[in-house]
Specification:
about 525 residues, alpha/beta, D-Maltodextrin-Binding Protein, domain 2, 2 domains, 4-stranded mixed β-sheet, 22 helices, about 45% helix
Length: about 525
């Protein structure tokens, strides 16, 4: 008990000291002076700033996500001049919410943490776990305010206060499908353009076995990039009220769980699984590692992925496939269609990752200083593209990243280090799309451009209420787990037992919070329309 009391007293002193340091650590231009002890008396005492970083298990040999070329550059360029020691704290990407919950609950969270889940942010707000960033942003966030703008920053306001700094999401597309063009050519098949044609193509892949032993017609993992592009086109056209009241926000994305057509979408996945057209061990592959491995070793005929990711460097899926399998060719496609013939799929909101500073942090001022430094155009460009001449050249004002090992090793996790921007913003959507395609190796740029366009086609923007839905905050994580459990059990059920399994899983889902979310969203919609 004494230890807990001491901790509480220490936290109070730290909070007061941080507030005091903030008041005296700002110039009339809004720029901050030395952080920590230096703000109070001119000493050069070093502050240790802990920053979360996603660990995707893809670091080049000899490097880690906490010790690589970019972390060293950040330390030398930002840390050393400001007497701040950067300490990066790795969090596995596939378990980021669970890991962050543990860190927050234990009081050991880094000074800068983040998530894509707005419900999780609000949960921390309600628990009193986050620092109100309003004064820090006003005093030392001039670059952030200029770069993000009020519209993006508003996504980080909860209960009227700025509890998070949302990253600007430059590209709003989510997913794109890919197919082995050389398999189609070998079998004399056209590129599938409808869901029915996809099914027929997958059947041909299985029967003709163009990949040899171990052919997987449709590569699939238990990740949204695999199941959402297939399920969403089955969703029927509804009224605005139905969309708002039957959709459920689980994690960082809307799930059409209660929408008409959802059951039919899952039933189609059941058909694919029972006919041996889909990755047999998909349920064990939440991080897509097995899927990527199967694609790169030439086993997969078709799959869906985050738009453009197959051409990236973490790993460079298509490039590695072509090295492993002579003559292999991947074509980006947009084949799944709804009742109107549209290629509907979910899209992103203009705000991306939510960056937060836990209330337990001693270094709120230093954390804001770091984010504000990052929001400068030259810093964002350096984190994204490296050094001009060494890692990229300019073509019509667009950075062309070099396709060499040194550059790949430098930029392999650039998106995870660039906390305030999901993508490099060149100020024009067409220019941004062109820049994204030009950022991949030259041999894949034309296909990457198509992949990015496919990700945007017929995209459905996420819904947004004027306040968080409390039931989604309370049950979102549990229901996301139950949703994926439902997908697994329903996909693997015998066809004649599908209805029974689906109905039972939905009953469990609704009684575990789904009903409460539906009721609250219905009430919130009525209030929004008053």
């Amino acid at each position: 008990m004494k230890k807990k009391a001491l901790k509480r007293n220490a936290a109070s002193v730290i909070t007061a000291a941080a507030a005091f340091g903030l008041l005296i650590g700002c110039t009339s231009q809004g720029e901050q002076t030395e952080t920590g002890a230096a703000a109070g008396g001119g000493s050069k005492e070093q502050v240790t700033l802990k920053v979360e970083v996603f660990d995707r298990g893809n670091s080049p040999a000899g490097m880690t996500v906490t010790n690589n070329l970019v972390t060293k550059w950040v330390q030398e360029t930002f840390g050393d001049p400001n007497h701040i020691k950067l300490e990066f704290v790795p969090v596995p990407r596939a378990q980021e919410v669970d890991k962050l919950n543990v860190l927050m609950a234990s009081g050991d969270a880094p000074d800068i943490v983040f998530t894509y889940d707005p419900n999780l942010v609000y949960k921390y707000v309600q628990q009193g776990g986050l620092m109100d960033l309003g004064e820090l942003l006003a005093a030392g966030g001039a670059n952030l305010k200029s770069y993000l703008g009020e519209d993006t920053l508003n996504y980080g306001k909860f209960d009227g206060k700025q509890y998070a700094i949302p990253a600007k999401r430059v590209y709003l597309g989510k997913y794109s499908s890919m197919i082995r063009q050389d398999w189609l050519d070998k079998l004399g098949l056209p590129v599938p353009k409808t869901t029915e044609e996809v099914y027929n193509t997958l059947k041909a892949f299985k029967e003709k076995n163009p990949g040899g032993s171990g052919t997987i017609p449709l590569g699939f993992s238990l990740a949204p990039a695999s199941y959402e592009p297939i399920i969403w086109p089955f969703i029927k056209k509804t009224t605005e009220e139905e969309r708002y009241t039957l959709m459920q926000l689980l994690g960082s994305g809307d799930k059409p769980t209660l929408m008409p057509g959802h059951k039919e979408g899952v039933k189609f996945l059941n058909k694919l699984y029972n006919e041996g057209l889909i990755s047999p061990d998909f349920a064990l592959d939440k991080d897509k590692k097995k899927l990527q491995q199967d694609v790169m070793t030439g086993k997969v005929g078709m799959y869906a992925e985050d738009a453009g990711q197959s051409y990236g460097t973490a790993p460079e899926v298509v490039g590695i496939l072509q090295k492993n399998v002579q003559g292999a060719k991947i074509t980006p496609i947009d084949p799944y269609t709804n009742e109107e013939g549209k290629h509907t799929k979910p899209a992103y909101q203009p705000a991306g990752m939510y960056v937060m500073i836990p209330k337990t942090s001693k270094n709120g001022e230093a954390a804001m200083k770091y984010l504000n430094w990052m929001a400068q155009k030259d810093v964002l460009n350096r984190l994204t593209n490296g050094e001009e001449g060494k890692n990229y050249t300019l073509q019509d004002g667009i950075p062309i990243v070099k396709d060499d090992e040194a550059t790949k090793n430098l930029l392999y996790n650039s998106g995870d280090m660039r906390l305030v921007s999901n993508g490099l913003d060149l100020g024009d959507n067409a220019k941004n799309l062109k820049a994204m395609a030009l950022a991949v190796p030259e041999a894949f740029r034309a296909d990457a451009a198509i992949s990015y366009q496919n990700g945007l086609a017929d995209g459905i923007a996420p819904l947004r209420f004027d306040r968080p839905i409390q039931a989604e905050v309370k049950y979102g994580k549990v229901l996301l787990d139950k949703y994926e459990e439902m997908l697994v059990k329903c996909m693997m059920a015998k066809p004649d037992e599908f209805d029974k399994v689906y109905d039972a899983m939905m009953k469990d889902y609704m009684s575990s919070g789904g009903d409460e979310i539906k009721k609250e969203r219905t009430e919130a919609y009525k209030n929004m329309k008053k």
